[in-house]
Design goal:
The protein has 5 helices and no strands. With about 140 residues, the protein is mainly α.
Length: about 140
Amino acid sequence: MVFFEIPTGIIADTLGRQVSYLLGSATLILTTVVYYFLWLHHGPFWAWAMDSVLLGLGFTFFSGATDAWLVDALAFEKFEGSLESVFSKGQIVSGFAMFFGATAGGIIAQYTNLGLPYLIRASFLIVSLIAAAFLMKDLGFI
């Protein structure tokens, strides 16, 4: 992820936070589906490693862009509260969602197979991509 932070940050800062988020979603959908097929066909280690590198690329499209998107939108709306409180509440929700998602994925895999959580994740990412394409606005982005 370290290698991708600067290039993806440039995309977010020049083309917009929404574009960066959409590219991240698309990358994560593709790499998650590839994970599924690697599991299905017992892919070699090198293929898992390469897909994991691309998965890191997908996450770097989100990393700074979503924070910058939030700060831009709050400034645009003349938010007078504390940014720290907004970010801390976001971290709480994010932590809970990560815990719930990992636990649910483990339970689903336990009772079905190891591939189904990948397909469920890809489905959620598709919904996220569509929602962001239509609902996410770059308020305050210059």
